[in-house]
Amino acid sequence: MMPQFSYWDILRNLIYAGELTVMLSLIAFIGGGIVGMVLLLARVWRPQVFGSVFNIYVQLFQGTPLLMQLFLSYFGLRLFGIEVSVWVSAGLALTLYTSAFLAEIWRGCVASIPKGQWEAGASLALSFGEQMRYVVAPQAMRIAIPPTVGFLVQVIKGTALASVIGFAELTRAGNMIANVTYQPFTVFATVGLLYFCLCYPISLTARYLERKTNAVRR
Amino acid sequence: MTVQLDFLAVLHYWPMLLTGVAWTLALTVLAIVVGLALSVTFAWVRVEGPRWAAIPVAAYVELLRNTPFIVQLYFIFFGLPELGLRLSPVLASAIALVLNLGAYSTEIIRAGLSATPKGQTEAALSLALTRYQVFTRVVLPPAMQKVWPSLVSQIIIVMLGSAVCGQIATEELNYAANVISANTFHTFESYIIATVIYLALAILIRRLLNWAGPRLIFGG
Questions:
Q1: Mean pLDDT over all residues of chain A?
Q2: Cβ–Cβ of A163/B70 closer than 8 Å?
Q3: How many CA atoms, within 13 angstroms, populate the side-chain half-sphere of residue B53?
Q4: Collapsing DSSP states into helix, strand and coil, what is residue B70?
């Protein structure tokens, strides 16, 4: 006899998997933020040295499919004899992917700060670190927050691809549950809805912050 | 330990890679043509259209923009057959890509349309142009010009995203890499080569669209 699944069974299991989506997103976002910040600081500190490295890095991750990056991280680590859990493969690929996008977003924000601000800082005998910390970063951060929050939505959606390398997050759970229940329409509609519930509030927040920032600048 | 990489074994399957590239490009071109046509219409509806039409369009845009492409694809390919609508992998991929690009570019083009000063529309109307003429000749071209860089970036994102379509056995580039890796056991090399091709395609398509935009879309 075929087991019967109520909608509640489906929803409960999907929400459970959704927690993994949230966790993976946070890992990628925080990890990507740290790596992205290092990249950005190197680039701003010594543009002649790190400028082209930065550009190539960004081009590489923005110009190739995230799915390929996940495959390369998954099979690459194994090829070099590093047996790791799918958490590491997925976390690594998503972190690098996120870092490239965040670094590029933040670079634009720093570049939008007039050069005079740097020079004023330098004329007060502030070191590079002090200029960045006390003069440029506070101004750049204000413009950087809305697009950064907006990019979190891209990260959450990006984690769905980790399902392909076997990470049992929301999309993967949807696949498995659809196969067991024979209700793919209901299951994938619910999966989509759960992603929407995660992402839409963040999108709205980003839009609200953007309006607020623009209002301040005008 | 040493790792032996054998790229030639993968390149030996070049006809398969070529087919993959062809499908990736075909799907991308379809998404650009149909998706952009769709989104110009939808953007018009959102800016100037009747309210009863603007609300569903807004819902479509938000729904598609806040869910992963892979889930949209699975919903269309695995979910719709439950309602009796069975689609081939290629058709499902094409629909998913068109709808996805359509949603993002509706939002992008809408932003461009809203940026057109009202006086221009009024000036054109006072010259006895019809509403249709005003939209296609006065409002749309400068709007497209303004947002073209964003549209190009979004098109690249969709092209790269089409790699996911291989998961439902659409024979695009990622699928080719899958098959080649299964045949040769050179998995890492297969994906490296596919990734490099994707990168080349991204650069090429960006160049091409940057060139084509001013000449074909919002002409000088």
A1: 93
A2: yes
A3: 10
A4: helix
Q: Check CB contact under 8 Å for B68 and A64.
A: no
Contact in structure between A75 and B187 (CB atoms under 8 Å): yes
Distance of CA B119 to the CA centre of its chain: 33
Cα–Cα distance between B12 and A210 in angstroms, integer? Answer: 51
Q: What is the pLDDT of residue A170?
A: 97
CA A90 to chain centre: 12
Chain B CB within 8 Å of residue A134 CB: no
Chain B CB contacts of A156 below 8 Å: 68
What's the CATH number where B153 sits?
Answer: 1.10.3720.10
B151-167 mean pLDDT: 96
Average pLDDT over residues A103-114: 95
Cβ-nearest to A184 among B70, B82, B156? B82
Question: For B74-84, what is the mean pLDDT?
Answer: 95
| Residues spanned by the domain of B186 | 7-217
DSSP string, A27-93: HHHHHHHHHHHHHHHHHHH-HHHHHHHHHHHHHHHHSS-HHHHHHHHHHHHHHTT----HHHHHHHH
Partner A contacted by B185 (CB < 8 A): no
In a domain, B22, yes or no: yes
Residues whose CB falls within 8 Å of the CB of residue A177, separated by 6 or more in sequence, listed in order: A10, A13, A14, A187
Mean pLDDT of A133-158: 95
Identify residue A188 by its one-letter amino acid code. Answer: F
Model pLDDT for residues B25-41, shown as the tens digit of each residue:
999 999 999 999 999 99
Q: How many domains does chain B have?
A: 1
CATH superfamily membership of A7-217: MetI-like (1.10.3720.10)
Tokens standing for residue A85: 């859990």
Section B2-19 average pLDDT:
88
